[in-house]
Amino acid sequence: MPNLDGKVAIVTGAGRGIGRAHALALAAAGAKVVVNDLGGSLTGEGADATPAQQVVAEIEAAGGSAVADGENVADFEGAARLVRHAIDAFGRLDILVNNAGILRDRMLVNMTEDEWDAVIAVHLKGHFAPTRHAAAYWRERSKAGEELRGRVINTASPSGVFGNVGQANYGAAKAGIAGFTLIAAQELGRYGVTVNCIAPNARTRMTESAFGELPSVADGFDPLAPANNSPIVVALCADEAQDITGQVFFVYGGAVNCLRGWDAGELFLSDEGWDADALLGELRERFPEGAAPAGMVASMQKAGGASMRTLG
User: Fold this and answer.
1) Which one of 32, 159, 170, 307 is the catalytic residue?
2) Active site residue 157
């Protein structure tokens, strides 16, 4: 296991599921952890300090150090207080794992403005706000002459990188997070900070809400265990991963696929520019069967996983 002794990590949405697994794994590797969780419902309502406190108790029982935090990451000032909490509690901040999220699934033609806004706020703004404040802290330390090995790990989703019917709000937010990762990696590299992203798969209350109750494995390796998504997080937080940044990793069981994302594809080139009729003809010639997204099932299989829909 990589040695994270002396490092301080924030994990958002760490009271349950994948976030909890990340917090436990980082603590097991030696990091001190701020367990952030608002404790709201799956759709984002209410608050409950209990889940975060329970994870802190687990970490402490195993001999680690942790504190609970109940800030709302979608609140800009709340995110600033979260970052300050880590610094005040443990003297520094080295790792930020943005994981908090909610679901309000609906087909596009029926989706309300509030269902769109709430999901975009928690996922996309909930990544921006903590990262913005952590980045400002790291920039100050870098300008003061410190050599940093800061880490940001963001959380996308197969819905965001492959697309999934019924999740226009969630998928758009998660795709935005992947794009945010690329830009933040380029901006923060000068300060010694890497920014990467995972697109995880696990049996959690979010996936069960979307796909129904998923089967568990009583004996042997369980590909849907939340903890399967944490080794890549711990690995990317190691000092030895200082030159790996701006990447998006799809994770399913024992499969970790470093996705290519948007890249150069089919080129339509005219030295003198196109007129619409000629370009349409070229499109029809190149795509005689048409062109459409592969969809989440086929894309996940290609990346080494399986669709939750086939398991529910």
Assistant:
1) 170
2) yes
3-state helix/strand/coil string of the chain: CCCCCCCEEEEECCCCHHHHHHHHHHHHCCCEEEEECCCCCCCCCCCCCHHHHHHHHHHHHCCCCEEEECCCCCCHHHHHHHHHHHHHHHCCCCEEECCCCCCCCECHHHCCHHHHHHHHHHHHHHHHHHHHHHHHHHHHHHHCCCCCCEEEEEECCHHHHCCCCCEHHHHHHHHHHHHHHHHHHHHHHHHCEEEEEEECCCCCHHHHHHHCCCCCCCCCCCCCCHHHHHHHHHHHHCHHHCCCCCCEEEEECCEEEECCCCCCCCCCCCCCCCCHHHHHHHHHHHCCCCCCCCCHHHHHHHCCCCCHHHCC
Query: Which position has the higher pLDDT, 214 or 131?
Result: 131
pLDDT at 311: 47
Q: Which of 7, 32, 125, 174 is catalytic?
A: 174
Q: Quick check: is 170 catalytic?
A: yes
Catalytic residue flag (residue 125): no
Residue pLDDT, tens place only, 115-142: 999 999 999 999 999 999 999 999 999 9
Residue 215: pLDDT over 80: no
Residue with the bigger pLDDT between 129 and 1: it is 129
**pTM above threshold 0.85:** yes
Active-site option among 157, 159, 299, 307: 157
